[in-house]
Amino acid sequence: MTIVDTPERRQLRELTRAFVTREVLPHLDGWERAGEVPRELHATAAKLGLLGIGFPESVGGSGGDLLDSILVTEEIIRSGGSSGLVAALFTHGIALPHMVATAGGRTGRALGSPLGGSQSPGHDDLVDRYVRPTLAGTMIGALAITEPDGGSDVAAIRTTARRDGDHYVVNGSKTYITSGFRADFVTTAVCTDFPGSGELSLLVIDKGTPGFTVGRRLEKLGWHCSDTAELSFVDVRVPVANRIGQENTGFLAIMQNFAAERLSLATQAYATAQRCVELTTRWCRDRSTFGRPLASRQLIRHRLAEMHTRAEAARAYVHQVATRVAAGEPVVTEVAMAKNVAVAACDHVVDQALQLHGGFGYLRDAEVERHYRDARILGIGGGTTEIMNEIIAKGMGL
Ligand SMILES: Cc1cc2nc3c(=O)[nH]c(=O)nc-3n(C[C@H](O)[C@H](O)[C@H](O)COP(=O)(O)OP(=O)(O)OC[C@H]3O[C@@H](n4cnc5c(N)ncnc54)[C@H](O)[C@@H]3O)c2cc1C
User: Which atom of ligand 1 lies closest to the CA of 145?
Assistant: First the structure.
């Protein structure tokens, strides 16, 4: 079972490739050095319909499903983009889905939602205020779950939101937040009971709200074009109307959206591996040592064969699991396995790719150098490899 390549999907791939060639490749190195991608890139991607892929047209999206989003991610990286670029440009993929899932009426997605969408007032309002402008490329959103005290244990969140009339008063801090520096709003996980109780809610907090400060831009090993920030909340008054779904349904909402986030990271991993196989194969054909091309040596050919095999196997498995998720199957364990399989394939391939490029592989000028650095986060973000193993062990009944 793999993602069926329909004529529409082939068109989507071509559109994505043209976007990367025209709008990304000439500038990516500059964005890497600047530490962020420009806002105009969001507007351009939105105009082409790429930003809205996977979101229904009723909320301002372009339609399509999880599988279409996966193909766009894959194509961006295979065309010479990067996982850092995907993180920066598609942060809304983690910042918006909770709002869409709980929106009543017009979106038609909230019916029977355990998050209590259609019963809560104001959710279409969130779609109008945040989802539509973000998918139109005029706003940038972020998702803030992780705190300085820890990220793996989501239930232990300590940022609190105390109800005071029509507002919540939020206190706490978040860290490692992707696009947090540029974001106009942050979908923020808060504890609506005592700290560490696991009773979580999601609040949309606007940049500029008194008491909400964005700290320094964090410097990282990779994902240089993706800005990452620390956020602080001191007595921040957030209207109750900015709560997503019912109170204390945040944990469930976060867990439900982890599947798409993890599959996106898995896609970034196998696509990075595929790209590195292509780059390295080309390099090994062109580069001669001791009088003949590297690719003429059996040792090198076998290494490339193994890299290719791992990348293709990871892709096939991620596609298979994604297809099951899109069909509504509860495959939490398989999603965790898909992420770990793809990350392991990627780790192996980027390491070998850099090695086979020799000294050039260690230079900023080499594309494989960027992938080598970028890849390291894929086994950490969206749930670490160890946390995935915990999920898999649970699925095994251990
Ligand atoms: C570049 C970047 C972008 C990010 N973007 C976002 C974002 O947009 N929003 C957001 O909310 N977060 C974001 N994160 C945070 C990321 O999700 C967390 O770093 C990740 O979940 C791990 O949490 P932690 O760093 O607190 O590690 P910890 O939870 O402190 O874990 C430390 C180590 O211990 C291991 N470990 C923890 N518990 C166990 C256990 N029970 N058994 C075995 N091993 C265990 C972990 O696997 C890890 O290796 C980002 C991080 C980075 C670096």
Answer: 11
pTM of the model: 0.95
SS3 278: helix
Q: What is the pLDDT of residue 274?
A: 98
Position 179, amino acid: S
Which residue's CA lies nearest to atom 16 of ligand 1?
381
If one counts every other C-beta atom within 10 angstroms of the C-beta of residue 198, the result is 15
**Which of the following is catalytic: 36, 74, 147, 261?**
261
Is 221 in contact with 350 (CB distance < 8 Å)?
no
Rounded CA separation 244/269 (Å) = 31
Q: Name the residue among 124, 23, 131 with its Cα closest to residue 80.
A: 23
pLDDT digits 0-9 by tens, 185-217: 999 999 998 877 889 999 999 999 999 999 989
Pocket test for ligand 1, best of 384, 388, 394 (most atoms within 8 A of CB): 384
Q: Could you tell me the distance, in angstroms and rounded to a whole number, from the CA of residue 174 to the centre of ligand 1?
A: 12
**Which residue stretches of the chain have pLDDT < 70?**
1, 104-123
Q: Which of 233, 218, 127 is nearest to 188 (CA)?
A: 233
367 is catalytic: no
Ligand 1 pocket, residues with Cβ under 6 angstroms: 142-146, 150-152, 176-178, 220, 223, 228, 377, 380-381, 384, 386-387, 390
The reported pLDDT for the residue numbered 4 is 86
